[in-house]
Every structure is written in structure tokens, then in C-alpha cells.
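Sequence in, structure out.
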Amino acid sequence: MSIRKFGVFAAVIAALAFGAAGTASAQSKHTIKLGFTGSDNPQQPAAIAALLFKQTLERQSRGRVEVQLFPNGQLGDEKPMLEGLRFGTVEAALIANTTIAQIEPAFMVNDLPFLYATEAQAHKVLDGKVGQLLAKKLEPKGIVSLGFMEMGFRVMINNSRPVNQPADVKGVKYRVMQSPVYIDMFNALGGAAVPMAWGEVMPAVQQGTIDGLEMPLVSVHAMKLDEMIKYVSVTNHTYGMVALLMSQKAFNKLPPDVQAMVREAGKSVVGPQRQATGANVTDAAAILEKRGVKVNMVKDIASFRPLMKPIYDKYRSQIGADVLDGALAAVK
């Protein structure tokens, strides 16, 4: 080979090598660390959401993105994770609606008692204009909303008596999340609301410090609370939503095409996650009954609603008229 031809050949090889390097750089792998406080039990709503998001994004990105899952609060409890999203120290997390409401009060709309009669109504609100407004309100706080997942309706469980009407709540001590809306709801029904961090709950039930809890039905089964309680009343008083969120700082570090994949993956797993959670809720009720827990469906939900009106009035200004009126209009 002549020197001239060798020079041309070397130039071509160099160009190809540069191009390959450029392509490799453009196709570099990205990692997203996703945290949630629940276990990795496949029946848990957050675990379902996390695994679906991981599988979908890794498949759609053809390996360019790896989603690493950190269950059981490995990245912190929900409130610290939410703060981490704002400052960029946490990349992604699944956060319950009530926790989000602590930094953006508009989310309290989903905590309002007996707002949604069915899952379909909740989906209509969260997937429509109200959901868009809620997602938009997180942007100035440095958080990207990728999808509103389902935890299932919350039910009342206790060791005192079944709940069929408001009077059945009277005098019963219920552990509630540290949310003013939940506290006001149980107090309005004549119960004794006991705000308590989750880590204190199990000893409190065992020692009789509290009579009962309120939580998603599927969690009663998954956490084996049937070993501690006698009655499960399907009040469906509040729809449980858990949001898939990402730090704006972490999101901005991704190339535009990967950002699009992340958004699409979040959007595409909402439906399957809700469907899987719904199926688990149905199974949970049957399993609890087989284990000797008395499960009752509350038929007269309408009797609870008049007692809730003062709560709607109290939080209207904090939630925002646009959000609250939009939700009420959608569920009519």
C-alpha cells in the first residue's frame, strides 16, 4: 500500500473511530434511582408502579436508561425524599398524595373525604384538567410529575365494631396520617383522631393505645394486619393516590430524547398499575374474610357526606377554587 493510500485509509479509520465515539457518547447510559417507602411486595401499589416504570423505561430506551429501585425507605421517609426531589439530592420517588399536600396544598383536594364515589371518578379528575393543574403547580418547586398512580380507596379497620353509619365511628380512637384533613374528618364523625407516624403504629395497635386505623384495603392484607384487627369496614372515605415524581435537576441532566422516554414511560404505566392494584384490592377482601376478619361494605355512604361540608369549606381557599370546583364538576 502506498504512503498516500495508507494516509487516506488512516484518515477514514480515524473518522469512523471519531464517529463511533460520538455515537457512544450520545448513546451513553443513564441511571435513575427511584425510592419508595413501602416494601417490594408485588401486591403493594408503590412496588407495582416502581417495577412497571423500571421495566417500561428500560425496554423503551433499549438499555440506555437503568432504573434502580430503593424500597423500604432506603432513600428516606416520604417527606425527606420529597425535599430531596426539590433540591436534587433524590432523583425520583413515589410519594403519597397527603405528603405532597404538605408542600402544595392544592393536592389536599384528593384527601377530601367522600369526594370520589368510584375509582373511575378519581381517574377522570387526575387524568383531566385538575390533574394537569396539580402537575403544573409542582414545577416551580423543582419537581416533574410523571404520573398519578393508585393506592386504592382507604377503609376503616378496628377492634371495636364494624362501621356502617357515622355513629359507629363515635368514640373510637383511629390512627390517622399527620394531615389536618384526616384529623378533621374523624373528629367530624365523632371519633378520636390520633396523628401518628407509621413507625409507631404496630406497637400502638398491640398495646391498645389506638382502636383502629384507616388505610388502603390492599395494605391491610399485605402488612398482615389481619393478625391484629377484627373488623374491616369498606368506607372508601378517601381515594389513595401515589405520584411518580422526578427531580427537575435530575431530569434536566438527561438528553431531550431520554427526557421524552421518561415522560412516556411514566404516562404509559398509569393504566396497568391502576388495573393491577384494583385486582389486588378485590383479592385482599376475599383473603381477609377467609382469615376470619369481618369485612363489611358500607352501603349508606350518603349519610356521611353532610358531616363533611365544613371540611370542604375550611380548605377551599388553600386548595384553590379552580382545583376544587374542577374536581366537584368532574364527579357530578
